[in-house]
């Protein structure tokens, strides 16, 4: 492919794996270059209910967020990510679940076809354009205030992340406790029984008086 350059990438449309969704359900398409704060600002404006204040006197100022009553708030929202954007989409979902409590979750993993069009670097060389099709993993996550079918694969009840975090912390504490036990007094480390723990022996000939430590043999005081 050294004689070609990538001209464009075309993502084939993918059918939403969640049927019977309301027509006003927003879809947040997470791209590789998307900023999480911009994605969350839009998503929270459609799902999070805010309290009326001096800065937000009411919904008549053109805001999409209804203040206090929640009339324009959506009951469901969908996050999608393709290829390298899957991890960022999951991050947005986890942030959303911690900001808006009581959300039910359905997760679907599918493959989306992506076509790459490659053009020759030198068209006069007689080379034709190439189209390469690749199947890229894609994730669809549905978050809903209303109950979802618990028997469907990929269902996650509200508050499940708290249970997972508690289990992870418990396992980490058990690991730290085992490491402390291994790093304590073990075999061969008891006081007085290890090598070099006994009294220092004085070297010299039998019957010869012991010399103070630090004086060389044969030296004069």
UniProtKB/TrEMBL annotation:
Cell compartment(s), UniProt: Nucleus
Ranges where the record places region Disordered: 175-221
DNA-binding recorded as keyword: no
Keywords per UniProt: Nucleus
Listed Pfam families: Alba (PF01918)
Compositional bias segments (type: Gly residues): 184-196
DNA/RNA-binding protein Alba-like domain residues: 27-111
Family according to the record: Belongs to the histone-like Alba family.
Name this polypeptide is given: DNA/RNA-binding protein Alba-like domain-containing protein
Organism: Cirrhinus molitorella (mud carp)
């Amino acid at each position: 492919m050294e004689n070609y350059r990538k001209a464009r990438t075309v993502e084939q449309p993918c059918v939403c794996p969640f049927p019977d969704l309301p027509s006003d359900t927003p879809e947040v398409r997470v791209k590789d270059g998307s900023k999480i704060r911009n994605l969350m600002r839009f998503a929270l404006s459609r799902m999070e209910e805010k309290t009326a204040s001096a800065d937000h006197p009411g919904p008549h100022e053109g805001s999409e967020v209804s203040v206090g009553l929640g009339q324009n708030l959506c009951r469901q929202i969908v996050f999608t990510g393709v290829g390298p954007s899957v991890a960022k989409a999951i991050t947005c979902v986890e942030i959303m679940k911690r900001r808006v409590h009581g959300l039910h979750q359905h997760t679907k993993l599918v493959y989306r076809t992506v076509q790459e069009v490659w053009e020759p670097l030198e068209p006069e060389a007689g080379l034709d354009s190439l189209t390469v099709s690749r199947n890229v993993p894609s994730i669809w996550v549905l978050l809903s205030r209303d109950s979802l079918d618990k028997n469907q694969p990929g269902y996650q009840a509200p508050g499940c992340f708290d249970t997972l975090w508690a289990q992870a912390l418990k396992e980490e504490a058990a690991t730290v406790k085992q490491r402390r036990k291994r790093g304590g007094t073990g075999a061969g480390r008891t006081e007085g029984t290890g090598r070099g723990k006994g009294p220092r022996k004085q070297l010299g000939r039998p019957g010869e008086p012991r010399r103070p430590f630090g004086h060389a043999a044969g030296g004069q005081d």
